[in-house]
Structures are given as structure tokens and as C-alpha cells.
Design brief:
alpha+beta; 2 domains; two-stranded antiparallel ribbon; 12 strands; globular; DUF2252
Length: about 475
């Protein structure tokens, strides 16, 4: 493996140097780390057993929910990949990097992108999950995102050629849009977003475009929290309560339930303190009515997650989602100190750094046991990707969209001129990322098989109630 190019994060952006000088700086890095070095993936002899990593990352989770975690991961190699961010982070630490650091998503796979409404009620396309956000090598996000397309493509039974093309489009789109951002001022980059409707119009499949426009129309007509209130609650005397849907939505019972309710109430007060004054005034119009645990995602299963129902005096609801904030899977694999003592604050600040617009009620808190959480609105006109209906050309279009969104996010905390200088105008970088993605998809298949063997051996518990 080539020696790493040492380039400290804090010195990445030189406000005195011209764009041309910074572009040349990026070009010079190729002499130390050639672009084709990024195609390398070969498991080291001392590579950690992926099952051991899964077990380690389950420590401290709710033990009764672990069977749901492993059951979801065993559905397919793609589901496994979604829950195995810690495994890939450990592997990426063994790959060549340029030494250029910026704020990473950390769990950058294709299901963590989508459409949502900004506080101004505009629908944009962006990254929407930041549980693992942390400063690190910019290449790691691209490699995980591109690999997710190769693995999802296999899951959808597309050809190996198609899967490699999807990964290639991620890196090529990243390259093209990073070059565009390199020509903008820092302020222009900060203002930039990706309009969801305009993005859909770029596609060539009229059937998919019609389907997506209907989804946008439905999302635009969405009245925040009212549909959830009708679907997820019932009236218990004078009080609205969240419906149980075990094992995915449930109220903790007995003394434990009373303790959790008390802790949530305390945490809610601390959460309010993390918000700006104007948002505190807004939420002061509401009172906490009910709290329930909610199992979400794949990688998050087993962490303490739930929903709280707030009601105004005149009966308007707000649903908030709270998620446990644990150490980023990137942190143990990087020699970088976490500047935030509060893991919830790390997630919130990372999200604000990377997203074009964040949930206006995004904040952080902790309970009496010093467990960290972050809080946001449960749903806000979200438009998720529907992989099951995508044809090969739709997957390619979606790969381009995700590559674009990642470039925009990275351009905010990195130097797009340096990055563009390194990537250059040729296809060499995209070709390397595509080759890496196929190689790592093979590794993911092998790791998935090891997990299935561990399940058969009884090392990992599973549940049919998912």
C-alpha cells in the first residue's frame, strides 16, 4: 500500500491561495496516491472476523431487540451491508487515502438518500441519515456509496456489468458536480441545494417520472403530523395515546416503563435547551402526551429509539423521533479526536454541516443514565427511493443523483478545487471506484455467508417477528 499523503483537515482550505493553486495542489497529490490506487481491495491476513465486529457493535443495545437486528440483516447481502457499517469502516481503514479529510456521512449507502421538505417547505434531494457522521477521508463515503449500488444491483438481479456501471456513475457524477462546485464561492456552495422535482425531470424513463411526480404531489400536499396522528394514535379518555404494534412499536411496562417515561420527560427538557430560542418558543406551545419505543432501520435496531407525541392546547399534534446516539463507527478507525463530548451533538452538527437544509426541530439530549440521543421530527414529507420498481437505467439515474448530493455535501466542509484537481477530468478515478465496488461486493457476499453460518451455530439470535 502506498504511503499516505499527510494533509491535516484544518489546513485543507487555504483562503489565500487561488482556485488554480488549490486545483494544482490536488493534482500534485496524484504523485503520492495515484487515482488507480483506489481500486485496491484485498482483505489483509489479520482482518477481523466480521461476525466478531457485529457482536461487538451489539454490546449496550437492547438485548431483546437483537434478534430483530440479525433477522433483518439476514434477508439479503444488501440488508446485511446496510447493517454492517462498522465492518466496512474497519476495512476502509486499510485502504489507500489521499489524506484529505472533511465531514463524512459515515454510513453513506443509497437508502440513506431521498427527498424531504425543508423548513421553507421546499422539496429537496439530499443525504438523510447521519448517525455515523465524523470527519475523515473523503474517499470513504464514495466507496461505501458506490459499493451499495453494486450490492443493491446484485440483489435486484442486474448483470455484473450493470452493477459496475451503477458504481461508476456514482463516482463520475461526484467528479462532474465537484468541478461545478469548485467554480462557486463558499457562500454559493452553502446556498446550493438539489430541487427534487427538477432532479426527477432529468430522468429519461417517462413511466418512472410520472410515478415520482405523483409521490412529490402527495408529499407536497402532506400536512405535517396529521396523517401520523390519525394512523398511529387512539383516544384514551381525554388523552391521545400511541398505538402499540409489537414488536416494532410498543410501550415499556411495569416499573421499567415508569422509569423510562420519567427519563424521557427529563430528556425532553434537556432537548429543549439545545434548540434556538425561537424553536423553544414554538415547542413551548405543546406538552408531552405519550412516549413509545420504535424499532427503526437495520443498523439502528437494538439501540434505544422511540417516538414522542406532543399536543397543543387546541389539539394539534407533533411527533418527535428520538434515537440513541452512540460512538460513530468511523471514530475507532481514525486517529482523530471527537470534538463533541455529546454524541447527539456530534450527529446534529454533522448533519447541519452536510445537509442543504436540516429539520428545524433537530436537537440533542441525554437521559439520567447519561445515554445520548438526538431528536428530530418523525416524518416531514419524505420521499424514499423505491428500488423494487427500478430498471437498470433508473438505478443509473439514481446513482448519478446520489453522487451529486454527496459532492454537494462534501464541498461544504472540503475544498472542491483540491478535490477536483485530484480527481481530474479523465475516467481514471471513476474506473477505480467501480472496480473497488465489485471487489468489495464480493467481500460483502463472503461476510454475509459467515453471518448466516453464525446464525446456524446459534452465535447470533434471530426472530421471525419482524
Amino acid at each position: 500500500m502506498p504511503e499516505k499523503f499527510e494533509n491535516k483537515t484544518e489546513n485543507l482550505f487555504d483562503p489565500v491561495a487561488s482556485k488554480a493553486e488549490r486545483y494544482s495542489k490536488g493534482t500534485a497529490i496524484r504523485k503520492v496516491i495515484p487515482r488507480n490506487a483506489h481500486q485496491e481491495w484485498k482483505a489483509s491476513e489479520n482482518r477481523k472476523n466480521p461476525v466478531d465486529i457485529l457482536i461487538e457493535t451489539s454490546v449496550g443495545r437492547v438485548e431483546s431487540l437483537l434478534p430483530i437486528r440479525y433477522s433483518r440483516m439476514m434477508e439479503s447481502p444488501f440488508s446485511f451491508f446496510r447493517g454492517a457499517a462498522a465492518i466496512m469502516a474497519s476495512d476502509l481503514a486499510q485502504t489507500p487515502t489521499t489524506g484529505i479529510h472533511l465531514q463524512l456521512c459515515g454510513d453513506c449507502h443509497l437508502m440513506n438518500f431521498g427527498g424531504f421538505a425543508t423548513p421553507e417547505r421546499k422539496l429537496v434531494f439530499d443525504i438523510n441519515d447521519f448517525d455515523e457522521t465524523f470527519p475523515g477521508p473523503w474517499e470513504w463515503d464514495i466507496k461505501r456509496l458506490a459499493t451499495s449500488f453494486a450490492i443493491a444491483g446484485r440483489w435486484r438481479k442486474f448483470s455484473n456489468k450493470n452493477c459496475k456501471e451503477f458504481a461508476w456513475h456514482v463516482a463520475d457524477s461526484y467528479k462532474r458536480h465537484m468541478l461545478e462546485y469548485s467554480k462557486l464561492s463558499a457562500l454559493q456552495i452553502w446556498y446550493a441545494d438539489i430541487d427534487l422535482a427538477e432532479l426527477i425531470e432529468r430522468g429519461e424513463d417517462e413511466e418512472i417520472k410520472e410515478f415520482q411526480h405523483k409521490r412529490i404531489k402527495k408529499a407536497a400536499e402532506y400536512t405535517a403530523h396529521e396523517k401520523e396522528f390519525a394512523k398511529m394514535t387512539y383516544q384514551d379518555g381525554y388523552r391521545a395515546r400511541i398505538k402499540d404494534d409489537p414488536p416494532l412499536i410498543f410501550h415499556p411496562t411495569g416499573e421499567e416503563g415508569k422509569r423510562i417515561i420519567r427519563e424521557v420527560e427529563t430528556a425532553h427538557k434537556k432537548y429543549m435547551e439545545s434548540l434556538p430560542d425561537d424553536k423553544q418558543v414554538l415547542l413551548s406551545r405543546y406538552t408531552l402526551h405519550d412516549v413509545a419505543m420504535k424499532v427503526v432501520g437495520v443498523g439502528s435496531v437494538g439501540t434505544v429509539c422511540g417516538i414522542s407525541l406532543l399536543m397543543s392546547a387546541t389539539g394539534e399534534p407533533i411527533f418527535l423521533q428520538f434515537k440513541e446516539a452512540r460512538q460513530s463507527v468511523l471514530e475507532p478507525n481514525l486517529k482523530i479526536e471527537n470534538k463533541y463530548k455529546h454524541q447527539g451533538e456530534r450527529i446534529v452538527m454533522g448533519q447541519k454541516l452536510m445537509q442543504s437544509a436540516s429539520d428545524m426541530l433537530l436537537g440533542w439530549t441525554q437521559d439520567d443514565q447519561n445515554k445520548f440521543f438526538y431528536i428530530r421530527q418523525l416524518r416531514d414529507a419524505k420521499v424514499k427511493p423505491v428500488l423494487e420498481i427500478m430498471k437498470a437505467r433508473n438505478m443509473a439515474d439514481y446513482a448519478k443523483a446520489c453522487g451529486w448530493a454527496l459532492a454537494r455535501a462534501h464541498a461544504r466542509t472540503g475544498d472542491p478545487s483540491v478535490l477536483s484537481g485530484y480527481i481530474g477530468n479523465s475516467n481514471e478515478f471513476a474506473n477505480a471506484i467501480a472496480k473497488f465496488s465489485i471487489s468489495y461486493a464480493d467481500q460483502n457476499d463472503a461476510d454475509y455467508t459467515k453471518m448466516l453460518e453464525a446464525i446456524k451455530e446459534g452465535r447470533l439470535p434471530i426472530s421471525t417477528a419482524i
